[in-house]
Write a structure and sequence with these properties.
Bound molecules: nicotinamide-adenine-dinucleotide, magnesium ion
Largest sheet: 7 strands, parallel
Protein name: NAD(P)-dependent dehydrogenase
CATH topology: Rossmann fold
GO molecular function: oxidoreductase activity, acting on CH-OH group of donors
Keywords: Oxidoreductase
CATH class: Alpha Beta
Organism: Amnibacterium flavum
Number of strands: 7
Number of helices: 7
Oligomer: single chain
CATH superfamily: NAD(P)-binding Rossmann-like Domain
Radius of gyration: 18 Å
Family: Belongs to the short-chain dehydrogenases/reductases (SDR) family.
Order of helices and strands: HEHEHEHEHEHEHE
Structural class: alpha/beta
């Protein structure tokens, strides 16, 4: 692990090449029970005031990429409203502790984002708790592997689309009246948006939809001074992988062969992309997909 995200060095060895043991948890999973526990940047992310005074709503903020983003945002000076499922409270408590240790406000809003009413209540709670809202970061996601299309139940197909596509739609729509010029939206796609794994048909197609939706929305909202961008992660070590996100037998090799860098990414390595797209530094960037995937080629 580097001293901080600015420490110069060889990216191939910057984080360890991990060989996780076969392990499985029921969805949504508890990150602190994983082997190894993903690196959220707790001991490395150094803020430099890039998001001073910003008020951000982050979904999936208890673990993995969303949690790393929440910690980074707080250390950059933002107050954060965190969305996650009630079962994930222990993971969320760890992130809230990190946000408060950075001297920022954390507003916890547990609940199920597959419910449109909850998405609207989530936005209201964020606005009330933070005293406004100027950054939306949709990171929550559902991914369950199935060998064949015949194994994907109607319920799974619908739940994956509701979590990954409908929820960002509901949240952005509810947040829009609160977003002043200068506000930002960052959605989370995936390499799977362009290179769908055959055993993740529902998941991969939601990621294509998110990428497409975000690019269209970016063109619509730029005239209001609101920038919409996308982060597309590649294989990143997170609890999503051990809650039937991938075939458990493949876990020891996770991330080693897909990406040219030869290792899985850590959530800590994704956070700076979200910081950049939310900060005013990216003022001329809209409708862009920032691929953070260890060197895999994208369209
Ligand atoms: P993660 O499991 O740590 O985070 C996903 C989060 O989604 C959960 O913590 C949970 O809070 C939230 N969530 C799921 N269903 C929900 C629901 N019904 N209501 C409320 N919250 C819900 O895993 P992660 O890998 O950090 O995933 C974050 C995002 O990154 C996802 O959108 C995922 O598709 C995307 N992504 C991950 C990878 C990877 O390799 N890990 C690769 C590409 C894209
Ligand atoms: Mg979680």
């Amino acid at each position: 692990m580097p001293a901080d995200q600015y420490a110069y060095g060889d990216p191939t060895t910057r984080y360890p090449v991990i060989s996780p043991p076969v392990q499985q948890q029921p969805e949504p999973g508890i990150q602190s029970d994983m082997t190894p526990v993903p690196d959220l940047g707790e001991d490395s992310y150094r803020g430099t005031g890039r998001l001073t005074g910003r008020k951000a709503l982050i979904t999936g903020a208890d673990s993995g990429i969303g949690a790393a983003v929440a910690i980074a945002f707080a250390r950059e000076g933002a107050d954060v409203a965190l969305s996650y499922l009630p079962e994930e409270q222990s993971d969320a408590d760890h992130v809230i502790e990190q946000i408060e240790a950075a001297g920022r406000t954390a507003v916890a809003v547990p609940g199920d984002i597959t419910d449109a009413e909850h998405c609207r209540a989530l936005v209201d709670a964020a606005v009330e708790g933070l005293g406004g809202l100027d950054a939306i970061v949709n990171v929550a996601g559902k991914q369950v592997w199935q060998q064949s299309i015949e194994d994907i139940s109607d319920e799974q197909f619908e739940a994956t689309f509701k979590t990954n596509v409908f929820a960002p739609f509901w949240i952005i729509k509810a947040a829009l009246p609160h977003l002043k010029p200068g506000s930002t939206i960052v959605n989370t796609a995936s390499l799977e948006a362009y290179v769908p794994a055959p055993d993740r048909l529902d998941y991969a197609s939601t990621k294509g939809a998110i990428n497409n939706f975000s690019k269209g929305l970016a063109q619509q909202l730029i005239s209001k001074g609101i920038r919409v961008n996308i982060v597309a992660p590649g294989p990143t070590w997170s609890v999503l992988q051990v809650t039937a996100g991938v075939d458990p037998e493949t876990l020891p090799e996770f991330g080693k062969s897909e990406s040219p860098i030869g290792r899985a990414g850590q959530p800590a390595e994704l956070a700076p992309a979200y910081v950049f797209l939310t900060s005013a530094e990216s003022s001329f960037v809209a409708g862009e997909t920032l691929n953070v995937n260890g060197g895999m080629l994208t369209p």
